[in-house]
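Example S7 (structure tokens).
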């Protein structure tokens, strides 16, 4: 630990990836960061077991040193992190997790390739599930699913590409063509050869070869300028500028919310059903006293039959903890009593997380009448606990009603 603390002094406040190394210089863990120094410093805090779990506490105890590699942007750090995980398979990036559940970026094998996100478990075949398309190449797996989606939004603004909703040469613009995210595959505005250059650049970006892209774009820009095709030259000039100044604000925001030491995040869970029918569960989030509605999640309960609320809660929490890219809570709230509290704590124990759980008990009219759990957390956060629980109940009822209505209309 003292060695790592000393090495940390030389870390920059810039984006990049960091590697915790063992006594034999083997890679134990790799991570990405908006600020390398700030991120690594968070591993030295006393609350690491709560914020990141006991697995990483064990990793820190084994680590003998730490190194880093700077990148020009968080986007490139995200790509480099996935590449290093795939190459070295660091034990603490994969232990307790199945990387087959992680997402990959797939490029199809056809005249106008699609760029898609596919789960690694679905890549066992050379054919994309539920389609006739062959896989030409794939990148990943990426452990941070939501951040990968943000990354592709950034890439697509620089290199517009075709997705599954665009049919080549259909004669009318698809929605993404109308907003500038499709290069005109649907309308025939781009040739197969020109589109192939776009796909090549996307592949190079995922291979951490931004320099090769810039050289190619600069060469083509000069060729167009020499031929007095100034519109095409200006377009390439804009792409070069965008690559050199990647605006990954969304990634930085998500990165900061995931690991901020100041944020007190509460997650609340609730289950809704009628005699076990159309059973659903939800997760709501209150961050520093404010509902974070964009982070609410819905779960259609799959493994439970009959009116078993505790089993449904356990399934929802189990599926939530499989998402290592989601920020970890400092406190979990469940709706119910001792049984629900025990069910949540059992799932947390299975994954090795030390996160306090409180249960909000209700009266005959489903109004809060008490809170079970550690008194210190209840006293400090009672208002936020009740808010999170109320939001979870509201959200679960709304989701359940929607499922019932869908089932009724389906009949």
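Recovered sequence:
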């Amino acid at each position: 630990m003292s060695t790592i603390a000393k090495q940390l002094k030389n870390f920059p406040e810039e984006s990049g990836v960091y590697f915790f190394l063992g006594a034999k210089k083997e890679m134990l863990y790799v991570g990405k960061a908006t600020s390398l120094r700030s991120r690594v410093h968070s591993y030295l805090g006393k609350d690491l077991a709560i914020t990141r779990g006991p697995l990483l506490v064990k990793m820190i105890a084994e680590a003998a040193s730490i190194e880093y590699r700077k990148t020009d942007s968080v986007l490139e750090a995200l790509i480099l992190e996935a590449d290093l995980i795939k190459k070295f398979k660091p034990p603490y990036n994969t232990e307790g997790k199945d990387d087959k559940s992680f997402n990959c970026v797939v490029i199809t094998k056809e005249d106008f390739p699609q760029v898609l996100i596919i789960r690694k478990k679905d890549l066992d075949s050379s054919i994309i599930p539920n389609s006739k398309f062959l896989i030409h190449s794939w990148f990943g797996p990426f452990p941070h699913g939501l951040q990968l989606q943000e990354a592709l939004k950034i890439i697509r603004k620089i290199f517009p590409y075709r997705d599954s909703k665009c049919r080549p040469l259909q004669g009318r613009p698809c929605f993404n063509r109308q907003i500038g995210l499709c290069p005109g595959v649907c309308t025939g505005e781009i040739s197969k050869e020109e589109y192939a250059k776009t796909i090549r650049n996307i592949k190079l970006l995922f291979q951490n070869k931004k320099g090769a892209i810039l050289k190619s774009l600069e060469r083509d820009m000069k060729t167009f300028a020499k031929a007095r095709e100034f519109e095409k030259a200006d377009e390439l000039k804009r792409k070069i500028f965008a690559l050199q100044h990647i605006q990954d604000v969304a990634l930085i925001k998500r990165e900061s919310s995931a690991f901020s030491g100041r944020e007190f995040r509460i997650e609340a869970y609730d289950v809704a059903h009628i005699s076990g029918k159309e059973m659903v569960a939800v997760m709501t989030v209150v961050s520093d006293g404010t509902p974070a509605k964009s982070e609410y999640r819905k779960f259609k309960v799959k493994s439970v039959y009959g009116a078993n609320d505790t089993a449904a809660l356990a399934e929802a929490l189990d599926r939530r903890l499989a998402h290592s890219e989601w920020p970890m809570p400092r406190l979990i709230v469940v709706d119910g009593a001792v049984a629900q509290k025990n069910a949540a704590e059992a799932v947390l124990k299975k994954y090795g997380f030390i996160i306090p759980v409180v249960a909000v008990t209700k009266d005959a009219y489903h109004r809060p009448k008490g809170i079970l759990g550690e008194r210190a957390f209840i006293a400090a956060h009672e208002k936020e606990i009740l808010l999170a629980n109320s939001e979870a109940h509201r959200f679960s009822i709304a989701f359940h009603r929607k499922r019932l209505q869908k089932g009724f209309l389906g009949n």
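Notes on this example. The radius of gyration is 24 Å.
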